[in-house]
Amino acid sequence: MNREYQSNTIKQIWERGKRGFLSLLTNPSFYIYLFAVLLYLPHFLPNLSDITPWDETYYLLSGKELVSGVIPSFSGSPMTAVFYAICYLPFKASPFWLVQTDSLGRFLLFSGLFLGFWQVGKALKSHFNPMILWGLLLLSPALITIYEYPADPLFITFSALAFSQAIRFIKTWQLKHLRWASFWLGLGMLTRGDALVLIFALVGFMVIIGLKKNKWWQIVLAGMIPFVVLAGGYILLRGAITGDFATGMGPYSYTVFEQGQEVDLQGGTQRFAGPTESYYVARQLFGTPEDNDYSMFNAIKRNPEAYIRRLKAVVTWIPGVFLSAHYRRYAPSLSY
Question: pTM here?
Answer without folding.
Answer: 0.85
